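Practice problem: predict the structure.
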Amino acid sequence: MTEGSIDTRFRVPAWASLLGWLLAIGFMGFYFHIAHALMRGLAPSFGIDAAAIATATFGTVAMGLGIVWLVFIAELPEMWFLHRRPHRLVRDGRCPACGHPVRAAGVERCGECGAEVDRLPPSYAVGWRAVKRFCIAFALAFLIGTVTAEVVIAADERSMQSTVRSLNSKPRGNVPGTPPNLTFARRWPASFSKVEWSAEFGFRPVAIFSYGSGR
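Answer:
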């Protein structure tokens, strides 16, 4: 029996299909969010920097190769409802399609839904449809992950700017003063990346391998 010849009585509930897509996109989206934030931390910049964003995006794509084994993740509900669950129901003496007891009655066709008791869907195998679904989930997750990472980075930098403005507005003695040089750590997961502020140069990202070297 081929994938296309599965009895139409075997169906994946809509909620399960939705949950499968959300699981796939959510998990990979979180992965890409972390990956992009790390890449941005390794390519120091402050503010909108097209070159840094492009470099980080390329690195994020490269890190995406590490999750290609998740090609089946969007099909987890189908794997259960169409391929695993029917076999378990038959072993328990129930109809593989609706779960109605059938073995005790000694019938070959379910009196509840009409499915043939011995006609089971084939074992699951990764096919072209699974690859297409994965590509769609992968693209959506990549977009969501990188965009949310950039939004968080921008919010973090605005917080740094707000801190400096607040310190600049505080008087030192009887006159407004200039705060000393400051060093900010970016938000997790790029907390290893630092940004320096000085009255002379403003905000400047610190190169990863020069931080702490007495620069």
